[in-house]
Structure formats: structure tokens, C-alpha cells
Specification:
single chain; 340 residues; alpha+beta; Rossmann fold; 5-stranded mixed sheet; 3-stranded antiparallel sheet; 9 helices; 8 strands
């Protein structure tokens, strides 16, 4: 009976030992699972909040200050500064604050680890663009100042030249028409550089009117007067006139050639013309003729003898050959007179 009792106790102790081994195994598995959860949680916190839980030490002062600020921001009554324990362990409000801050962090999105580097690049770019903008602003201001000075100088020179041309035009017009009067007027005196110029002419025996109301010959003579009025301000060594005398009658042709005589000592005139009187005033004549169909031939002739250098001798009489060269009928081809 005693052996049976001992065997029963042995079986009972063996069962207890087996139960303890099973419980130990379960606890080891549970411990391993908890360790994995802790590692995953630490990794998650490190990845999301950049906080290492293994080296984290709670800062009660910072925690309390942040908690009070969140409570105050939410509009709740601020806890008593002395009741720190109550503040820390107010789990309902604390959980609500944590949820709100979590939502705010989620709304911000993931942390950009390259943000600092990108900020430095953008700041450098911004500084460079600010410098460029300042340079462009200064250049624009300097350019506007230069343009203002140029416009001021141009307006001054234009006013002086216009006044001189106006005087010359009145003189040339009276000389070409044998009287009358003419004038130049700015359409907008406040914007002399951009406005037009009105030409007003009054030939002898006519009313003062715009040049557009004159006849063809009068308009041509007015244009000649204006041309030589401008020419007197700044003469050039050469002047080319292309059939300017075409609309002129005989009396106006004489006045036109006399006007040329006034300027031939300081300029050389190249005149394209069909008029015999104008051709007769030329020193050298060039004609283009077509003796055979489709074949042009250039003919040149000096109508005056070359003068010795430094001597202004009168022009000799024309020889018969030269006179015959001038006897060109109206059906002859184009002629070019180069006169000096």
C-alpha cells in the first residue's frame, strides 16, 4: 500500500513538472513575441519620428509644457501648474491630445530627409536670382537714364535743326517761286520727336494752304525748296536727283537750274533727267542708247573743258559736235546727266 502511495505521488509530481515545462515553453514563446513587438515598435518609432526608444529618456518638464500648451490651444481650462500629477495622469485628455497630434503628423506626410539639402540649394538659387534681379533693375534704371539723356539731346538738336531748316525753307521757297511764303509746323509741339510736320505754302497769287492742295509742279518746287533747305544745314559732297524736274514747266526749270548753280561749288550733283535745259547745264553727259534691239550702249561726252586746278575760268562755247549731241528729240532713249 505504501508503494502504491509513493507511485501515485511520483506520477503527480511528474505531471506537475510536465505542466511547468509547458507553462515555461508558453512563457518563452510569449516573451519572444513581446520582444519582436518591442523591436518592431522601436523600429516604427525610429522610422516615423526619428526617436530611438533604446536611448530615449522621458523629459517630464517638456512633456508637461507641451501638454499644457495643447490643452490651452484646445480651449479647455488650463490645469493648475502645481498639480503636475493630475496633469500627467489625466489619461482621457492625454489620449485625445496624442490622437490629435498623430492626425497632424499624418497630415504633414512623411519626413523628407533631403529637405535640408534642398533648402540650401533653393536658398542659394534664391540669392543668385535676387542678385540678378538687382543687376537687371540697376541696368534698367541706368538704361532709362541714358534714354532720357539721349531724348533730351535729340530734342535739343532737332529743335535747333528744325528752326534752321524752317528759316532756309522760307528763303528757298521765296527764291524758287519769285515771292510767296511758306512755313513748317509741328503737328504736336509737346512730342516733337514722334509727331509729323505740316508743310504750309502760299505761292504768289494764291491763298495759304497745305502742300497737298497744290498742283503737281508747285508741289515739286516746294519739295525742291525743302530739299535744299535741309541741304543747306548739312551739305554732302554728292547729291543724286532722279527726274526731279519732270513735272516742271520751262520757267520752273530755269529756277531749278539756277538753284543748282548756287550749290555746285560745294557739292557734286548726279541728275537723271530727260529735260534739255537741265542736260545743257551738265559738265559731263552720259546717255544710254539702243542702236540695235536688245543691245544697250553707253555714250559719254564732256560738255565743258576741264579747268586748270585753282582756276575758275568761264565755260567755253560749245563746239558744233557738242551742240549736235544736245539736239536730242523727244523720242530718244533715256539720258543721264552728271553735272558738277
Amino acid at each position: 500500500a505504501e508503494v502504491n502511495t509513493l507511485e501515485a505521488d511520483l506520477r503527480m509530481h511528474r505531471k506537475s513538472l510536465s505542466d511547468l515545462h509547458d507553462a515555461r515553453g508558453k512563457e518563452e514563446v510569449r516573451q519572444t513575441q513581446m520582444q519582436l513587438k518591442l523591436e518592431n515598435l522601436a523600429e516604427h518609432v525610429m522610422r516615423r519620428y526619428q526617436v530611438d526608444l533604446r536611448e530615449f529618456s522621458p523629459d517630464r518638464y517638456a512633456f508637461t509644457k507641451t501638454y499644457r500648451a495643447q490643452i490651452k490651444q484646445r480651449g479647455n481650462a488650463e490645469p493648475d501648474p502645481g498639480a503636475e500629477e493630475a496633469v500627467v495622469f489625466d489619461e482621457a485628455q492625454l489620449q485625445e491630445v496624442i490622437d490629435q497630434l498623430t492626425r497632424q503628423l499624418d497630415a504633414m506626410g512623411p519626413v523628407n530627409l533631403d529637405a535640408v539639402h534642398e533648402y540650401d540649394e533653393l536658398e542659394e538659387r534664391h540669392t543668385f536670382l535676387e542678385t540678378q534681379n538687382a543687376d537687371l533693375t540697376n541696368s534698367r534704371r541706368e538704361l532709362l537714364d541714358v534714354i532720357a539723356r539721349i531724348n533730351q539731346t535729340t530734342e535739343k538738336l532737332f529743335a535747333e535743326t528744325f528752326a534752321q531748316v524752317r528759316i532756309n525753307f522760307r528763303e528757298m521757297f521765296a527764291e524758287l517761286f519769285g515771292g510767296g511764303r511758306a512755313d513748317l509746323a509741328l503737328l504736336d509741339e509737346n512730342d516733337a520727336l514722334n509727331c509729323g510736320i505740316d508743310i504750309i505754302a502760299k505761292p504768289p497769287g494764291k491763298q495759304l494752304q497745305s502742300v497737298s492742295l497744290l498742283s503737281g509742279g508747285e508741289r515739286t518746287m516746294t519739295a525742291v525748296a525743302l530739299l535744299f533747305a535741309i541741304y543747306m544745314v548739312r551739305p554732302s559732297p554728292f547729291c543724286i536727283l532722279d527726274e526731279m524736274d519732270a513735272p516742271l514747266d520751262e520757267s520752273n526749270i530755269n529756277r531749278f537750274t539756277k538753284m543748282l548753280d548756287r550749290f555746285i561749288l560745294q557739292s557734286q550733283f548726279i541728275i537723271i533727267t530727260h529735260n534739255k535745259r537741265t542736260i545743257a547745264k551738265a559738265d559731263v553727259l552720259y546717255g544710254v542708247t539702243m542702236e540695235e534691239r536688245g543691245i544697250s550702249r553707253l555714250v559719254g561726252m564732256r560738255l565743258t573743258k576741264a579747268k586748270p586746278e585753282g582756276e575758275n575760268a568761264p565755260a567755253p562755247e560749245q563746239s558744233p559736235a557738242q551742240q549736235r549731241a544736245l539736239d536730242l528729240d523727244e523720242s530718244s532713249p533715256q539720258n543721264v546727266a552728271l553735272a558738277r
